[in-house]
Amino acid sequence: MNEQLLAKTFVELADNLVADFDLIDFLRLLTDRCVTMLQQRSTRRSTVLNEQLQAALDSRVLIEQAKGKFAERRGTDMEQAFSALRGYARSHNRRLSDVARDFIDGSEPLDGLGV
């Protein structure tokens, strides 16, 4: 938790104290706020990680499909297909998953690409 946010929370809580509010109640409230903030941070991190993992899986699926299509169309094995696709992506300064997606949907025919 960043220090500025914690300090702001502390000040907000202290400003809202009433005369009959004792220190233990205040500390409980502050602790609850800190726990809530930590849980929110953990949830955000988990969400980001899940999105990254899903994107990696989606990318891998596209690449595998493109390898299969390339191997079938060009009569190569999967390793040669991967090398050809990767080489094409590198030589055109593109991400392999983008090349794979375009090859699968037919918008990137990879004409002239040898194995």
UniProtKB/TrEMBL annotation:
It comes from the Bacteria. Residues 43-104 form the ANTAR domain. InterPro entries: ANTAR, CheY-like_superfamily, WH-like_DNA-bd_sf. GO terms for molecular function: RNA binding. It holds the Pfam family ANTAR. This is ANTAR domain-containing protein.
